[in-house]
Design goal:
With about 140 residues, the protein is an alpha/beta fold. It is built from 4 helices and 8 strands. About 30% of the residues lie in helices and about 25% in strands. The protein is globular.
Length: about 140
C-alpha cells in the first residue's frame, strides 16, 4: 500500500517511528534502510523511542543526519507510554512538524507493532493522515 501511495505524489513528507534501535549514525544497520526511504521522500522525520537505559544529551535529541532526514530521540522518563511521553511527543510535533497550524507529514509510517507503532497510529489518527506498517 505504501508503494502505491508513494507513486501518486511527486514530493511528500513522511514521519517514521522506530522502537529502541539505539543511536543511529551512518554505521548503524538501519541507516541503509532509512537512506533508501529518504531517496523517495522530500523530508523524512524519524521518531526513535529509546529504552530506559539509552539516554542522549539535550544536544542529540534532534539530529539532522542527512539533507532531507531528521532523527528525534525520545527517551522515556520513568514509565513508558506515560502521559509525560505523550506530552513530549506532542511538543516535538508542534515544534518541528507543524507549520501554520498544519501537520506537515503526508503520511505516518512505522516499522514496529510495539510502542513506536502505537504512537504512530495515534499520531496518524489525530492528524487524519494515512498510516502504514512496513517490514523493511
Amino acid at each position: 500500500m505504501l508503494s502505491q501511495f508513494v507513486q501518486t505524489q511527486d514530493k511528500f513528507i513522511a514521519l517514521l517511528t522506530l522502537d529502541s534501535v539505539g543511536i543511529i549514525d551512518q554505521t548503524h544497520p538501519v541507516f541503509t534502510v532509512l537512506e533508501e526511504y529518504a531517496t523517495h521522500i522530500s523530508e523524512l522525520h524519524i521518531f526513535v523511542f529509546l529504552e530506559h537505559r539509552q539516554n542522549v544529551s539535550k544536544k542529540e535529541h534532534v539530529v539532522h543526519i542527512r539533507e532531507n532526514m531528521w532523527i528525534y530521540y525520545i527517551s522515556p522518563l520513568f514509565i513508558p507510554l506515560s502521559f509525560f511521553n505523550s506530552f513530549r511527543i506532542r511538543s516535538l510535533i508542534n515544534r518541528n512538524l507543524v507549520w501554520k497550524k498544519k501537520f506537515r507529514p503526508d503520511f505516518v509510517l512505522t516499522f514496529s507493532t510495539e510502542e513506536a507503532g502505537t504512537q504512530a497510529q495515534k499520531i496518524a489518527t489525530k492528524y487524519k493522515k494515512p498510516f502504514f506498517v512496513e517490514n523493511p
